[in-house]
Amino acid sequence: MSLTDRLTIEEIELLNNLTSNECVNHFTAKKKQDIFNESNLTESKFRKVMYRLEALNFIEIVAGSREHLIYVTEYGQSAIQCIYERRNA
């Protein structure tokens, strides 16, 4: 079983949202609060999803500013691509 098989629907949706909005590097990263506001998740569920995706290296959190920015890593982009390819196969 691969890592992508273990992702929850919420994790896949969040990765897909970031990828669709081209948040793929620290220049195009999106504010964590904006991502939360766009999601239909509770704060605790959102935190859990974010921690898990970061632990899997699917997302990167850019610290240093008052508001944290988030983007999908190349590994996360590959994971989304793999999920799409399996779904369409």
Q: Let me know the number of strands.
A: 3
Q: What class do helices, strands and sheet pairing give?
A: mainly alpha
Give the CA-CA distance, first to last residue: 17 Å
Number of domains: 1
Topology:
Blueprint lengths: L8 H12 L9 E2 H7 L4 H13 L3 E4 L6 E4 L1 H15 L1
Antiparallel strand pairs: 1-3, 2-3
Give structural notes:
The protein is mostly helical and 89 residues long. It has one domain: Winged helix-like DNA-binding domain superfamily/Winged helix DNA-binding domain (Arc Repressor Mutant, subunit A). The protein is built from four helices and three strands. It has a three-stranded antiparallel sheet with strand order 1-3-2. A hairpin with a 6-residue loop joins β2 and β3. α1 packs across α3. It is globular.
